[in-house]
Amino acid sequence: MRALDFAASLTGRVTIDFCFACQVIWFDAHKSTELSPGSVLEVFKALDANRSETRNTLPELLDCPRCHARLELTQDLQYTTHFSYYRCMFGHGRLTPVLQFLREKNFVRPISGPELATLKAKLRTIQCSNCGAPVDLEHDTACPYCRSPISILDPDAVSKTLHELASAETRRQTLDVNALAEALLALPPETRSVDRSRLVGDLVAAGVGIVASLLR
Protein backbone atom coordinates (compact mmCIF):
# COMPACT_ATOMS: atom_id res chain seq x y z
CA MET A 1 0.00 0.00 0.00
CA ARG A 2 1.16 3.56 -0.72
CA ALA A 3 0.08 6.37 1.61
CA LEU A 4 -0.84 9.76 0.09
CA ASP A 5 -1.94 12.99 1.79
CA PHE A 6 -4.96 15.07 0.72
CA ALA A 7 -6.74 18.18 1.99
CA ALA A 8 -9.63 17.55 4.38
CA SER A 9 -13.09 19.00 3.77
CA LEU A 10 -12.82 21.26 6.84
CA THR A 11 -9.24 21.68 8.06
CA GLY A 12 -6.06 19.64 8.11
CA ARG A 13 -4.98 16.71 5.96
CA VAL A 14 -6.28 13.20 5.30
CA THR A 15 -3.95 10.27 4.66
CA ILE A 16 -5.31 7.36 2.65
CA ASP A 17 -3.57 4.22 1.36
CA PHE A 18 -3.65 2.96 -2.22
CA CYS A 19 -2.83 -0.37 -3.78
CA PHE A 20 -2.69 0.71 -7.41
CA ALA A 21 -1.96 -2.80 -8.68
CA CYS A 22 -5.16 -4.09 -7.04
CA GLN A 23 -7.21 -0.90 -7.71
CA VAL A 24 -8.27 -0.56 -4.06
CA ILE A 25 -8.13 2.23 -1.47
CA TRP A 26 -7.84 1.80 2.30
CA PHE A 27 -9.61 4.41 4.44
CA ASP A 28 -9.12 4.58 8.18
CA ALA A 29 -12.46 5.08 9.96
CA HIS A 30 -14.61 7.83 8.36
CA LYS A 31 -11.74 9.18 6.22
CA SER A 32 -13.58 8.85 2.89
CA THR A 33 -16.22 11.35 4.05
CA GLU A 34 -13.54 13.86 5.07
CA LEU A 35 -12.08 14.39 1.58
CA SER A 36 -12.69 17.84 0.08
CA PRO A 37 -14.04 18.06 -3.51
CA GLY A 38 -10.57 19.15 -4.61
CA SER A 39 -9.03 16.12 -2.93
CA VAL A 40 -11.43 13.79 -4.72
CA LEU A 41 -10.12 15.21 -7.99
CA GLU A 42 -6.55 14.78 -6.72
CA VAL A 43 -7.44 11.10 -6.29
CA PHE A 44 -8.23 11.04 -10.03
CA LYS A 45 -4.73 12.34 -10.74
CA ALA A 46 -3.12 9.79 -8.43
CA LEU A 47 -5.04 6.90 -10.01
CA ASP A 48 -4.06 7.99 -13.52
CA ALA A 49 -0.40 8.67 -12.64
CA ASN A 50 -0.07 5.15 -11.19
CA ARG A 51 -2.19 3.31 -13.74
CA SER A 52 -0.92 -0.13 -14.69
CA GLU A 53 -1.53 -2.20 -17.80
CA THR A 54 -2.40 -5.17 -15.59
CA ARG A 55 -4.22 -5.46 -12.28
CA ASN A 56 -4.20 -8.02 -9.50
CA THR A 57 -7.31 -10.01 -8.77
CA LEU A 58 -8.64 -9.48 -5.26
CA PRO A 59 -8.81 -12.68 -3.19
CA GLU A 60 -12.15 -13.66 -1.72
CA LEU A 61 -10.81 -13.35 1.83
CA LEU A 62 -9.11 -10.12 2.90
CA ASP A 63 -7.56 -9.05 6.21
CA CYS A 64 -7.55 -5.65 7.91
CA PRO A 65 -4.08 -4.05 7.48
CA ARG A 66 -4.35 -2.60 11.01
CA CYS A 67 -5.46 -5.54 13.17
CA HIS A 68 -5.36 -8.45 10.65
CA ALA A 69 -8.96 -9.45 11.39
CA ARG A 70 -11.00 -10.75 8.48
CA LEU A 71 -12.72 -7.97 6.51
CA GLU A 72 -16.46 -8.24 5.90
CA LEU A 73 -18.03 -7.44 2.53
CA THR A 74 -20.52 -4.64 3.24
CA GLN A 75 -23.30 -3.17 1.09
CA ASP A 76 -24.05 0.52 1.64
CA LEU A 77 -26.25 3.29 0.26
CA GLN A 78 -25.37 6.93 -0.46
CA TYR A 79 -28.63 8.72 -1.28
CA THR A 80 -29.94 6.35 -4.01
CA THR A 81 -26.55 4.93 -5.04
CA HIS A 82 -25.61 1.41 -3.95
CA PHE A 83 -21.93 0.61 -3.41
CA SER A 84 -19.85 -1.91 -1.49
CA TYR A 85 -16.59 -2.18 0.44
CA TYR A 86 -14.74 -4.50 2.84
CA ARG A 87 -15.14 -3.36 6.48
CA CYS A 88 -13.06 -4.07 9.57
CA MET A 89 -15.44 -5.40 12.24
CA PHE A 90 -13.39 -3.59 14.91
CA GLY A 91 -13.83 -0.18 13.28
CA HIS A 92 -10.30 0.36 11.98
CA GLY A 93 -11.50 1.29 8.49
CA ARG A 94 -12.49 -0.14 5.15
CA LEU A 95 -10.97 -1.38 1.90
CA THR A 96 -12.82 0.05 -1.11
CA PRO A 97 -12.36 -0.95 -4.77
CA VAL A 98 -11.75 2.14 -6.93
CA LEU A 99 -14.98 1.64 -8.89
CA GLN A 100 -16.98 1.46 -5.66
CA PHE A 101 -15.29 4.65 -4.37
CA LEU A 102 -16.26 6.48 -7.57
CA ARG A 103 -19.77 5.07 -7.27
CA GLU A 104 -20.02 6.29 -3.67
CA LYS A 105 -19.05 9.79 -4.83
CA ASN A 106 -21.70 9.59 -7.61
CA PHE A 107 -19.08 9.82 -10.37
CA VAL A 108 -20.12 6.58 -12.08
CA ARG A 109 -23.31 5.55 -13.85
CA PRO A 110 -24.32 2.55 -16.01
CA ILE A 111 -23.82 3.05 -19.72
CA SER A 112 -27.01 3.86 -21.65
CA GLY A 113 -28.46 1.81 -24.51
CA PRO A 114 -27.40 4.22 -27.29
CA GLU A 115 -23.91 4.58 -25.76
CA LEU A 116 -23.56 0.80 -25.60
CA ALA A 117 -24.64 0.46 -29.25
CA THR A 118 -21.99 3.00 -30.29
CA LEU A 119 -19.37 1.17 -28.24
CA LYS A 120 -20.26 -2.24 -29.71
CA ALA A 121 -19.84 -0.83 -33.23
CA LYS A 122 -16.21 0.02 -32.43
CA LEU A 123 -15.07 -2.58 -29.90
CA ARG A 124 -15.72 -6.21 -29.09
CA THR A 125 -14.20 -6.65 -25.63
CA ILE A 126 -13.47 -4.32 -22.71
CA GLN A 127 -12.27 -4.84 -19.15
CA CYS A 128 -14.69 -4.82 -16.25
CA SER A 129 -14.09 -1.65 -14.23
CA ASN A 130 -14.77 -3.54 -11.00
CA CYS A 131 -12.76 -6.79 -11.27
CA GLY A 132 -10.77 -6.40 -14.50
CA ALA A 133 -12.28 -9.45 -16.22
CA PRO A 134 -12.98 -9.34 -19.99
CA VAL A 135 -16.52 -8.37 -21.01
CA ASP A 136 -17.76 -9.48 -24.45
CA LEU A 137 -19.89 -6.60 -25.74
CA GLU A 138 -21.54 -8.84 -28.32
CA HIS A 139 -23.23 -10.88 -25.59
CA ASP A 140 -22.92 -9.14 -22.22
CA THR A 141 -24.28 -5.95 -20.67
CA ALA A 142 -22.64 -6.78 -17.32
CA CYS A 143 -19.46 -8.55 -16.22
CA PRO A 144 -20.04 -12.33 -16.40
CA TYR A 145 -17.83 -12.81 -13.32
CA CYS A 146 -18.75 -10.13 -10.74
CA ARG A 147 -22.04 -9.02 -12.41
CA SER A 148 -21.10 -5.31 -12.32
CA PRO A 149 -22.89 -3.40 -15.10
CA ILE A 150 -20.82 -1.73 -17.82
CA SER A 151 -20.21 1.75 -16.40
CA ILE A 152 -18.69 5.09 -17.36
CA LEU A 153 -17.85 8.30 -15.52
CA ASP A 154 -20.87 10.60 -15.37
CA PRO A 155 -19.83 13.93 -17.00
CA ASP A 156 -22.53 15.87 -15.14
CA ALA A 157 -21.23 14.67 -11.76
CA VAL A 158 -17.61 15.50 -12.63
CA SER A 159 -18.60 18.91 -14.00
CA LYS A 160 -20.55 19.70 -10.82
CA THR A 161 -17.48 18.99 -8.68
CA LEU A 162 -15.32 21.15 -10.94
CA HIS A 163 -17.78 24.01 -10.54
CA GLU A 164 -17.61 23.62 -6.76
CA LEU A 165 -13.88 24.23 -7.00
CA ALA A 166 -14.15 27.27 -9.27
CA SER A 167 -14.46 29.87 -6.53
CA ALA A 168 -11.37 28.59 -4.70
CA GLU A 169 -9.13 27.55 -7.57
CA THR A 170 -8.92 30.04 -10.44
CA ARG A 171 -7.04 27.69 -12.73
CA ARG A 172 -9.98 25.33 -12.86
CA GLN A 173 -12.40 28.13 -13.79
CA THR A 174 -10.99 27.93 -17.30
CA LEU A 175 -11.96 24.30 -17.80
CA ASP A 176 -14.49 23.77 -20.58
CA VAL A 177 -17.01 21.50 -18.86
CA ASN A 178 -18.90 20.97 -22.12
CA ALA A 179 -15.71 19.64 -23.72
CA LEU A 180 -15.20 17.47 -20.65
CA ALA A 181 -18.69 15.99 -21.01
CA GLU A 182 -18.12 15.24 -24.70
CA ALA A 183 -14.78 13.59 -23.95
CA LEU A 184 -16.22 11.40 -21.21
CA LEU A 185 -19.13 10.28 -23.38
CA ALA A 186 -16.86 9.50 -26.33
CA LEU A 187 -14.43 6.63 -26.67
CA PRO A 188 -10.89 7.44 -25.59
CA PRO A 189 -8.87 8.58 -28.64
CA GLU A 190 -6.53 5.59 -28.51
CA THR A 191 -9.47 3.16 -28.99
CA ARG A 192 -11.08 4.77 -32.02
CA SER A 193 -9.04 3.02 -34.70
CA VAL A 194 -8.02 -0.23 -33.02
CA ASP A 195 -8.82 -3.79 -34.00
CA ARG A 196 -12.23 -4.62 -32.52
CA SER A 197 -10.97 -8.02 -31.39
CA ARG A 198 -8.35 -6.48 -29.08
CA LEU A 199 -9.11 -6.22 -25.36
CA VAL A 200 -9.37 -2.53 -24.44
CA GLY A 201 -8.89 -1.12 -20.92
CA ASP A 202 -11.93 -0.36 -18.82
CA LEU A 203 -14.07 2.69 -19.57
CA VAL A 204 -13.97 4.15 -16.07
CA ALA A 205 -10.15 4.13 -16.04
CA ALA A 206 -10.17 5.86 -19.44
CA GLY A 207 -12.51 8.52 -18.03
CA VAL A 208 -10.24 9.00 -15.02
CA GLY A 209 -7.38 9.65 -17.45
CA ILE A 210 -9.38 12.30 -19.30
CA VAL A 211 -10.21 14.14 -16.07
CA ALA A 212 -6.62 13.89 -14.83
CA SER A 213 -5.25 15.34 -18.09
CA LEU A 214 -7.55 18.38 -17.74
CA LEU A 215 -6.47 18.97 -14.16
CA ARG A 216 -2.74 19.15 -14.92
Largest sheet: 6 strands, antiparallel
The percentage of residues in β strands lies in 15-25%
- Taken from the alpha-carbon principal axes, the silhouette is globular
Care to count the β-strands? Answer: 11
* Average pLDDT reading: 81
The side-by-side strand order for the widest beta sheet comes to 1-2-3-6-5-4
Give a quick rundown of the structure.
With about 220 residues, this protein is α+β, with helices and mostly antiparallel strands.
Could you explain how this protein is built, in words?
The chain is 30% helix and 25% strand. It has helices at 37-49, 98-104, 113-122, 155-166, 177-185, 203-215; strands at 2-7, 13-19, 24-28, 71-78, 81-88, 93-97, 108-110, 125-127, 134-136, 151-153, 199-200. The chain has 216 residues and is an alpha+beta fold. It folds into 2 domains: 2-104, no CATH class; 108-215, no CATH class. The strands form 3 sheets. A 6-stranded antiparallel sheet has the order 1-2-3-6-5-4, covered by helices on one side.
